[in-house]
TrEMBL record:
Keywords: Metal-binding
Identification of the protein by name: GTP cyclohydrolase 1 type 2 homolog
Family: Belongs to the GTP cyclohydrolase I type 2/NIF3 family.
Entries under InterPro entries matching the protein: DUF34/NIF3, DUF34/NIF3_bac, DUF34/NIF3_sf, N-reg_PII/ATP_PRibTrfase_C
Superkingdom assignment: Bacteria
Organism encoding this protein: Mesonia profundi
């Protein structure tokens, strides 16, 4: 098994097309054709992580956070980032990062937070825009079923819990082949009127390449006419943050004590308690100050996130309880998610969960 086979499986869970533009995801170090001896799954990729991979005979590290974020202008070992990359290269260890692709995945980072709190009725807090594409194409009537089947196989036509979704109209298409053409039907220099079907299918943007390749491979015409548009429809399965409900409401201070215990954090920094019951809970793993307004708009009683600054707490405006549980603490279960996923995909392969605590923040 090579690196690419492992990473392609991960991208079925969290397609890289949904990672944020600022992010650096995918294979960061190594050759995707390298044979894999074992996979080490970690939250971060530090020097101790590479040492652990060497010790456990793993030559692929699957990390949540990317070790290379900004550009590297040299590799001299003057920073921890450079030392990690050098050590990985010296030991033929590949490094793959999934980060915000998994943040934006429905069964990703934020779903794991919801899982720890047993939240029900989970929904994406901030759906990502322009994730749904629509393909319109024109096919000879007799070939329509064959083309549709190829599009479905490539991943088109999936809407929520439904597959093979499409719409078709019948009509007449016209074309006049010139002398350079090689028409399947009709003759050069003669106007051809053909009974055709207009087909419509939608699909997630991450399968666009496969869908267009399937269209061109299955379509009988030399020149394939099609239109591709981005839809503004809300995609409730792709986006960052999540909101759900507790099975039973809790008093605020009891809830704060509860999340401190669940996430094993040294302290929970929070805004003023409001004297109301906590029932609706919004969460966003990692730095989530940008989502405070979305949590309020969604009617959340509390917003659990990390890395809130002094002025961010004022944004509660006595409408919501803001709870900062710590960056590491909010994402700590992510490596368990990745380990469980890969173990199920490759049950007879060495998938190792890192035992290193990479939290750089300590509490006294």
């Amino acid at each position: 098994m090579n690196v690419k086979e492992i990473t392609q499986s991960l991208e079925q869970l969290a397609p890289l097309a949904y990672a944020e533009d600022f992010d650096n995801v995918g294979l960061l170090v190594g050759d995707d054709q390298q044979e894999v001896s074992g996979v080490l799954v970690s939250l971060d990729c530090l020097e101790v992580t590479v040492a652990e991979a060497i010790e456990k005979n793993c030559n692929l590290i699957v990390a949540f956070h990317p070790i290379i974020f900004g550009g590297l202008k040299s590799l001299t070992g003057k920073s921890y980032v450079e030392r990690v990359v050098i050590k990985a290269i010296q030991n033929d260890i590949a490094i793959y990062a999934i980060h915000t692709a998994l943040d934006n995945c429905f069964k990703g980072v934020n779903d794991m937070i919801c899982e720890q709190l047993n939240l029900t009725n989970r929904q994406v807090l901030i759906p990502q825009i322009n994730t749904i594409k629509k393909l319109t194409t024109y096919v000879p009537r007799k070939d329509a079923d064959k083309v549709l089947e190829a599009l479905f196989k490539a991943g088109a036509g999936n809407i929520g819990n439904y597959e093979h979704c499409s719409f078709a109209l019948e009509g007449k298409g016209s074309f006049l082949p010139n002398e350079e053409a090689n028409p399947v039907v009709g003759k050069k220099g003669e106007l051809q009127i053909e009974e055709e079907k207009q087909l419509h299918v939608t699909f997630g943007k991450h399968v666009q390449h496969q869908v267009l390749a399937a269209l061109k491979a299955s379509h009988p015409y030399e020149e394939v006419a099609y239109e591709l548009t981005s839809l503004e429809n809300t995609n409730q399965h792709i986006g960052i943050g999540m909101i759900g409900e507790l099975e039973s409401g809790m008093e605020e201070k009891t809830f704060l004590k509860h999340i401190k215990e669940v996430f094993k954090t040294g302290a929970v920094r929070h805004s003023h308690v409001l004297g109301k019951e906590i029932k609706k809970v919004a969460v966003l793993g990692g730095s989530g100050a940008f989502a405070i307004s979305a949590a309020k708009a969604a009617g959340a009683d509390v917003f659990i996130t990390a890395d809130l600054k002094y002025h961010d707490f004022f944004k509660a405006e006595n409408k919501i309880l803001l709870a900062d549980i710590g960056h590491y603490e909010s994402e700590q279960y992510t490596k368990n998610l990745l380990h469980s996923y890969l173990t199920k995909k490759f049950p007879n392969f060495a998938i190792v969960l890192s035992q290193k605590n990479t939290n750089p923040i300590q509490y006294s």
